[in-house]
Write a structure and sequence with these properties.
heterodimer; A: mainly alpha; two-stranded antiparallel sheet; 7 helices; 68% helix; B: 5 helices
Chain lengths: 249, 137
């Protein structure tokens, strides 16, 4: 049985050349990302091609997703947060489709790599910092000084708040990455048990339905987690964007 | 909101509408009924939310541990960066780790406070409000 982490290996498909010691190549991860973006763009363009007054099923599906994200953003950040809608919508769809594509057998799970989720999280926090400073100037730093704290504690709490702010992209990316990684490893391990038991023979033939049922349940659970994690990622993005929009209280 | 037929019939039997006091009592009654319906809807929505949050205990565990680990990593990293700029190794790293431990705890308490608020609070969720605020009050 091959290692359960072999599915996360990066392999080169086309090599374009070298920069210093690092190869520049199209990898399986990159190919999957291109396909995901093409799928999202193509799917949404096809679904909204006609723009009927009474939507057909594809158009109403696209409209449902649109309204889901739009309502979430409006609820969390208010009306002025809607300027971030294109960003949040693309982020949600990318994470959701990447997670779901990972559930297709033999497909690569893009979001099971920390660097991908961390890049997305850095993009979010970068937006928060840049927009916060452009919009509010140094007033944005008031985010780090909580109100209602005794005077001698303020410097201490401020340092902790700054660390807490910097831990946001880490926790945002770590959560998505860990969920995807752990889920896929668990799935692979249980599926591997089926093969091992069948190759043992004898009592293995009696016991093999147990991991089989477990794998069956885990696949459903993983699809649920794929949706849930995309949702959580987007909700936290909205909460952080709200900080950039309304830093002082 | 549709007009309730039972309600309508009862109102007909009451003294003739027209004078101010009567109108105001009717308005009051209507207001309280609308309030009841709205609160009933809120109740059912809250129950639904509670069910959804209970369904994913594993999700909560992942979330809380990620918050804590992220705090420690961020604190250690910031301390280490300070070390490499100022040259105070290893004190920045040590103090950074300790402060990171504190901020990880803070993050975790905020995250769990948010989860508790969603599950048990009687207030309707206030939009445009950070969950972090609740930890501060």
């Amino acid at each position: 049985m091959e290692s359960p982490v072999k599915q996360f290996e990066i392999s080169e498909i086309i090599r374009f050349g070298m920069i210093g010691d690092s190869p520049v190549a199209l990898t399986n991860s990159g190919l999957h990302m291109i396909l995901i973006v093409a799928f999202i763009t193509g799917g949404l363009m096809l679904a909204t091609r006609g723009t009927l007054l009474v939507p057909n099923r594809w158009q109403s599906f696209a409209e449902t997703i649109y309204e889901f994200v739009a309502n979430m953003l409006r609820e969390m950040t208010g009306k002025e947060g809607m300027r971030f809608f294109p960003f949040v919508f693309s982020l949600f769809l990318f994470v959701l489709v990447a997670n779901l594509v990972g559930m297709i057998p033999t497909a690569f799970t893009v979001t099971s790599h920390l660097i991908i989720t961390f890049s997305l999280a850095i993009l979010v926090i970068g937006t928060v910092i840049v927009y916060g400073f452009v919009k509010h100037g140094f007033h944005f730093l008031g985010l780090f000084v909580p109100s209602g704290v005794p005077g001698w504690l303020v410097p201490f709490i401020t340092v902790i708040e700054v660390i807490s702010f910097f831990s946001r992209p880490i926790s945002l990316s770590l959560r998505l990455f860990a969920n995807m990684l752990a889920g896929h490893i668990a799935l692979k391990v249980f599926a591997g048990f089926i093969v091992s038991l069948l190759s043992v023979g004898g009592i293995g033939y009696v016991l093999f339905p147990l991991p089989f049922l477990m794998t069956f349940a885990l696949i459903a659970f993983e699809i649920f987690i794929a949706g849930l994690q995309a949702y959580v990622f987007t909700v936290l993005t909205c909460i952080y964007l709200n900080d950039a929009l309304h830093p002082g209280h | 909101m549709m007009v309730d037929p039972r309600r309508n019939g009862k109102d007909e039997g009451e003294p003739k509408p027209g004078d101010e006091a009567d109108m105001s009592t009717r308005l009051e009654r209507l207001g309280s009924r609308l309030g009841e319906i709205a609160s009933g809807r809120e109740q059912s929505a809250k129950a639904e939310r509670r069910k959804a949050s209970d369904a994913s205990g594993l999700g909560q565990a992942f979330r809380l541990s990620a918050e804590f680990i992220a705090g420690v990593i961020a604190g250690g990293f910031l301390g280490w960066m300070l070390d490499s700029f100022v040259g105070s190794s290893p004190w920045g790293f040590i103090i950074g780790l300790l402060l990171g431990f504190g901020s990880g705890m803070l993050n975790m308490l905020r995250a769990s406070g948010e989860l508790n608020r969603k599950a048990t609070s009687d207030k309707p969720p206030v939009p445009a409000r950070r969950p972090e605020d609740d930890a501060r009050e």
